[in-house]
Amino acid sequence: MRAHTSTSLTLLSVAVFTVIVLKASSREASKLEPVTLESSPPELALLMGELQRLTHKMALSADAGNAELANFYMHESLEQMKKIQTEVPEYEGQPVALLMDRLGLPAYATMQEAVNAKDKQRMLAALDTVVQSCNACHAATLHPFIRITRGTEVNPFNQSFKP
Question: What is the reported pTM?
Answer without folding.
Answer: 0.75
